[in-house]
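User: Please predict the structure of the protein below. I'd like the answer in C-alpha cell form so I can feed it into my own downstream comparison script.

Assistant: Understood. Taking the following sequence of 275 residues as input:
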Amino acid sequence: MDDPYTFGQVAAANALSDIYAMGGVPRTALNLVAFDPELHGEDTLEAILAGGLSKLREAGAVLLGGHTVKDQEPKYGLAVTGTARPGDIWRKDGAQPGDVVLLTKPIGTGVIAKAIKDGDADPDAAQAAIAAMAELNRAAADAVRAVGGAHAVTDVTGFGLLGHAMEMARQSSVTLEIDAAAVPRHPTALELASSGRVPSGSRDNLAFVGPHVDFAAGVDQGMRSLLADAVTSGGLLIALPEDRVERFLADAATLSRPKVIGRVLRQAGPSLTVR
C-alpha cells in the first residue's frame, strides 16, 4: 500500500494477531524497523510508526521502544508480548468431530496486493482489503471468549486458509471439511485468482498443501489458488462447538464478515476436504 500510516497500522495488526489467536491480551511491543531516511524521508518513517502506535493503543498495549537498522527496502514489524490465564490459552490442536469451522475475515489479500503492485487493482476492492488487514482480531477474540472459548483457534496469515486449516487438522487428528462457496472473499479476489494473477507465495502454498487436500471436482483452479492465497493480517480460524455458534455470530456482528465455512469430521484420509 502507498500510505505509510496505513502500512504501519496493518503491520501492527498483523503482529498483534498471534496474541489474540491464543486467547491472550496484548501488553507490550517493540518496534522493529529497517529504513533508510535518506531514500524515503523521515516523515515517511514517522507516519509508519504513528500508524503502528495507533493500533497498539487500540489494543491497549504499551510501546516499550524498538530497534532500527538502515536498509534500502522499508520494513516494519513488532515483537509483541501478551498474557493469558494458563487454563484459557487457545491452541490449534483441540478441534473435535462435530465442531463448526468459522472464519472471521475474508481471504484474497495476496492476489489484491499483487494487483495493487501491478497498478490495476479495483479501487473499492483494494480499499476493502486494506481496511480488513488493518482491523484487529480483538473483537473476534472477545466474541470467542464471550461464548466460553473454542476447541481450537489459529489466525490465517502467510500459509493461506488451506495451510493453516491443515495445521489445525493434523495437530487435532481430525479432518476439516471446507465449503468453498461459503468462504468469505474480498471483491474481485476470485476473478484475479482465476485469471492467474496469483503471487508466488500463494502458488507455493498450493503446491505444498495441495497433495493433502481432497478437492471436489467442482472446485476449479481459481478457487483452489484463492483458498491457498497468502494472507496478511487475516482473521481467526475457529473450531467451535455447534451449540455456541449462533451466539458467537451474534456477538461478532461488528466484525468484517464472520462466516461458517465448514465442519470438523473424524479423521479419514486427507487432512482437508474442500467441497
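That's the full C-alpha cell string. The chain has two domains: 4-88, 100-274.
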